[in-house]
Write a structure and sequence with these properties.
The structure holds two protein chains of two kinds.
Chain A (H helix, E strand, L loop, with lengths): L1 E16 L4 E17 L3 E5 L6 H8 L7 E6 L2 E2 L5 H10 E4 L3 H4 L6 H11 L8 H11 L16 H13 L5 E5 L7 H18 L2 E6 L2 H7 L2 E6 L2 E7 L3 H4 L3 H9 L39 H5 L5 E4 L2 E3 L16
Helix pairs in contact in A: 6-7
Chain B lengths: L10 E14 L2 E14 L3 E5 L6 H9 L7 E3 L4 E4 L2 E2 L5 H7 L4 E4 L3 H4 L6 H12 L4 H14 L5 H4 L9 H13 L5 E5 L7 H18 L2 E5 L3 H7 L2 E6 L2 E7 H6 L4 H8 L51 E2 L5 E2 L18
Parallel strand pairs in B: 3-9, 3-10, 7-8, 8-9
Antiparallel strand pairs in B: 1-2, 1-4, 1-5, 5-6, 10-11, 11-13, 12-13
Helix pairs in contact in B: 4-5, 5-7, 7-8
The chains are: A alpha/beta, B alpha/beta.
Bound molecules: adenosine-5'-diphosphate (2 copies) and magnesium ion (MG) (2 copies).
The site of one adenosine-5'-diphosphate (ADP) has 12 residues of chain A, from strand 2 and helix 1.
Chain lengths: 330, 344
Amino acid sequence: MALMEVRNLVKRFPVRGGVLNRVIGHVHAVSDVSFDVHKGETLGVVGESGCGKSTLGKMLIRLIEPTSGTIRYEGKDITTLDHVELMPFRRTMQIIFQDPYSSLNPRLTVRSLLREAIAFHRIVPRAEMDEYITNLIRKVGLRADAADKFPHEFSGGQRQRIGIARALATRPEFIVADEPVSALDVSIQAQVLNLLMDLKDEFGLTLVFISHDLKVIQHFCDRVMVMYLGRAVEMMPCLDLDEQARHPYSKALLGANPIDDPSDRRPLTILQGDVPSPFNVPKGCPFTGRCPEVIDRCREEMPPAVSHSDGHLVACWVASEGVAECQRGA
Amino acid sequence: MIQRAASNAEPILTVRNLTTRFRTDLGLVTAVDDVSFDVAAGETLGIVGESGCGKTVTSKSIMRLLPEQVTRIDPKSRILFKGVNLATADEAAMRSIRGDKIAMIFQEPMTSLNPVFRVGWQIDEALKYHTTLNRAQRRARTIEMLRLVEIPNPERRVDEYPHQLSGGMRQRVMIAIALCCEPDILIADEPTTALDVTIQAQILNLMEGLKRKLNTAIVLITHNLGVVAQVCDRVIVMYAGRIIETGSVHDIFHRPQHPYTQALLESIPKRGRREHGKRLPTIPGIVPSLHDLPSHCRFADRCRYKQDKCIAAEPDLIETGDGRAYRCFYPLNQAPAAPTVGAR
Ligand SMILES: Nc1ncnc2c1ncn2[C@@H]1O[C@H](COP(=O)(O)OP(=O)(O)O)[C@@H](O)[C@H]1O
Ligand SMILES: Nc1ncnc2c1ncn2[C@@H]1O[C@H](COP(=O)(O)OP(=O)(O)O)[C@@H](O)[C@H]1O
Ligand SMILES: [Mg+2]
Ligand SMILES: [Mg+2]
């Protein structure tokens, strides 16, 4: 069953300018994105910087208001809930950020940081608070005495563990992890990934795992959604990605990623041009400017997501040619 | 202790016993400790290791770009380039070498490009300093360089400011500046770390092409082992200021001798069915602080093969003659009878 159903989600940020500071245009951060998140899965979201991953992730847990579209959680439309109605979801849905340091209040000890959220959502009675915090800290692989230290006293990897502890403090079911290991060295990255895997199993979490690193996604996630310039261009089981990716952008991402084996050298796929700005998004498919397979139709019309096989959706005129015109799926 | 380039080519840069210390509030720290290596013409030498292990300090010591007031390069250190010891050279000598014979590009090109000057002006300055071209010739050469590094519309871009360019284009401008004087050595410190993977591929491709065309030696500093596997000929692995292993890229990836190198390679997430969703092998603990370095093996506290000897003394860097060296009492993958992991 889908734990979360996202339909036609859009986020446009107004851009102001000129002497009157009028709105002179919009950043199309997320454009018409639809997908489901299954209970207990880890859904990877991959794409280059600025493609809208963080904006999407924050919308899912209502840290950012969508411009339009709907998000259903366990069947309930949470898109329009007000502050009070949203309260139970604030407990159930959490986020882990890339840079744990900037997301942790430097003036609070780890204990106070955690206590805030635990008390606010009344997770445990006051008398059990200290024990709960100690267990939480141990759970994320820190020593119990970490509770009375400040964030700056920890290394990057340890801070990320604190960020994870804070997210777990409210006993959530659904966590958006936004580049949680991108700032970490590879040996520390492995520690944190393992921790996330363990916690996910132990608490039966559902994860949306955002990363620009395809290798991490391929190792860690069940399904992957590839984004380009605010659009979801392909969605499929992670294990099929290497062989089954159909969208030219997904293929380019795969081909541009160096392989960790000097005996397996091959020319990296070179995409021409730069990642375009989401300020003036072209009509039609957003990838036309860099796509090696572009045809005229791509410049005119945004291709719909077409189902290529079970659980494999591709939004590309060329890749979907000949594929039976299935319904536009989520 | 001499680490010869794998090829028989004469080294163009010879670093011996490089030791760089910093004065800090907590006392003197040794960020780079007794580092020796050679760079041969036309090769790509990778320097890898986790953050803080001394990669940038090594390269900035060579370029003498570290803050004078707090930096002490040990007098025993030798950095020999064309008969000059850069470790002791004066600023005038360094200025004629920097950017001309040895060029360097950094992770964040914005910090090395001057934001208030047009892109073309910055290349022009380099050309003015290092060539005898006249103004019109320099302008033509500047545009040619921008075209060489695949910047679209170079005639227009030449008059733009750095902030008008994307991160990838700025890095290409840095490469253009670095290469406009056809240096013997290009030191690239995390040149693609801040860039998206499709842009990284463009930059790596560009560096590779230029190396082939100009026979420039490249010292590529990175923590990205995939990049190393794809472009480097030889690799130096650093840990807490020390070289702990060197070898050909194939030896390092397929037959690592130091447990740290092995552990680092294992901790990379793997593509493919077999490893999918499995826990990754990790290295427990963290890199020791420079203020608190053990006098025994610096990796011992995190090493799964630690023995009594490892916490009694620090091993020397042992050279095995085939361009390889390791700093370990109990090296892995020893030829001919390679001990199995389980037997250790
Ligand atoms: N608060 C905001 N105001 C204006 N533009 C924004 C805001 N947040 C994000 N953006 C823009 O939206 C686009 C998508 O950003 P983001 O979601 O952070 O991408 P990603 O996480 O994939 O790097 C970018 O162009 C970014 O500059
Ligand atoms: N100016 C400085 N003063 C004191 N310590 C420094 C200075 N510059 C670098 N260091 C220290 O030297 C060590 C090596 O740093 P660096 O070479 O930048 O590492 P990396 O391998 O990540 O490039 C680090 O512990 C760093 O904190
Ligand atoms: Mg982001
Ligand atoms: Mg560095």
